[in-house]
Amino acid sequence: MGSTVWFGLLGPVDIRLDGEPVPLPSARTRALLAALLCQANRVVSVDGLVDAVWGADPPDGAVTTLRSHVMRLRRCLGPQARRLETVAPGYRLLLDPATELDTRIFVARYQAGQEAADAGDWRSAARFAGQALALWRGEPLADVPSELLHLEEAAAWAEMRVEAIELRARADIALGRAADAAAALRRLAADHPHREPAYALLMSALAAADRRVEALQVYRLLRTVLVRDLGMEPSPELRALHQRILAMDAGPGGTGTGTGTGSGTGSGSDGAGDSDGRAAEDHDEPSAGYVAWPTPHTLPWDTADFTGREDLLRRITDTIGTTAGPNTVIVDGMAGVGKSALAVHAAHRLAGRFPGGQLYADMRGASAEQVLAVFLRLLGIAPGDLPSSETESAALYRSLLAVRRVLVVLDDVHDARQLAPLIPASPGCGLLVTTRDRHVGAAGALRISVSPLTLDDSRDLLDRMAGSDRTAAEPEAADEVLKACAGLPLAIRAAAGRLVARPCWTIADLAARLANSAIGNAGSTLLDELRFADHDVRASLAAGFTALGETSATALCLLGLWSGTELGLPVAASLLGRPSAEAEDILERLVDLNLLQSPRHGRYALHALVREFAAEKARTLLTDDQRHQAAALWRLPHARSADGFSESLQPSQPPQSSQPPQPSQPSQTSQPPAPPGL
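Given the sequence above, the corresponding structure tokens read:
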């Protein structure tokens, strides 16, 4: 049996062979594939592909480079490579549009839903519209840097998606599922604040669900937005709908008067006023009361060039929103390793499972009480009605989430006390937390530790950011840059940002700067070079360092003077000048804080960039005696021997050197090389 293939454009570009995702090597290759898929089964000229891949200003040799991308794409397609044909004057990608391309399937199902609606078959209309919308995984062509494709293709799909949401809402209202329709329409109206059909459907859904007060609030909010932004009033059709809802609310038990026929001419306390309802609108602007609208969707923008981590993403998405358990994942890792990017990327994948919304908070420097106040306002509590204590706020927060399916994302949580009040109690909600501290946890949570990127994923990230053409031209220099970045995504982004901002630089230029700074032959340090815009390795590490106590901070600085790849507990205890048991407690706490690595019990190592940072701090925070003692310890032969070391030095007896002690300089070539495994 032959292999199966699936292509997706309704989100990041997706290829699946026999159900397994196929990674694409670069942004240009993704743009090439997207351009071919947009014209599936048709020949796309070389000139047309160059325009789609590079835009109006292609580089010299673009046609030759395009052929290279075609070859790479064929390699990615593996057994399906024959589908990509060379046909003058360009290329053609063959597929079955009915089963193998999400955009074609989406259009077909949406059109089937429209036909069913025209025939009055609302059940079929709802089914087809739901199937069409289920194909969306995010913004179409989210990771394709092609302005041409976004303008000519993605914009049309996005407009059709809006129409599909409205179709599904009309069907749900007709089938008596007005509350479900209202939930989807709130988000649609929030995303399209000037789209009157979405507001009209939302008002109708709320009214049908016997939530007429909310329907009137939606109208008043729309009118305010239109007058403020466009200087225009709502359409006559929308004003007429407003009057009909007013008339519904003015019957027995209501606050106004009216016949219920939709004329809206009564004069009760509802203040309907003239035929277009302006008297009522002017009397009751949104500022008169807090409007609980829209459903919160506060996730940050997803990273278009997110790279690797597929196994971690799968573990997160297989846990949150799919079980009856706590639906909680705790992600830990060192500073700059990509915890936040992973969590936000996963949250965007999960958003469709949580129709009640997504709440996001950056917890760095924030208290739980401050975040609770923000979340409660987003969930519809008026500022004047917020509880006065953290305990009451947490109780109200849990009560509101008990009747909703909401995904809560808490980024950079400091400790368990900060997290506890923000944990949803409802099993229908999801919780995704990032932290540097492994002590942070929640009952029943899945814990995931994020490691630095592999070399292949590091290359892929550099390709995506700096351009695969550029890195392919200087592969050795690119590897030198990646070696200096040591698998840390933040460092790679800083290096790539500098390359993009300096098109006159070669990658070898940057590699030389990094190498010179690492050995002290430049006016800047390595961490100075790994800083661009808001990508700053030193600042990211400093955020965790400033939270350390004096003992832990001093220990990290002393470890930063150690030039070996790994050291055992006896060596570390002497370096710290403490008994083994006490030193182990200090070291293990640094491991918990992801500032130190422990490849196995009793063995410790520093990430290269953490060592660079710690050595910087050591020069200013340690005393001369502390630096001299560390340097002297390193020069002792038994300090570089794993056997018998614990008996040769006692922490209470500072090691002696036959030469005057000097501060340790890890970069000096005169220093003995560190034996592996110490």
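The radius of gyration is 31 Å. Try to locate this feature in the token string yourself.
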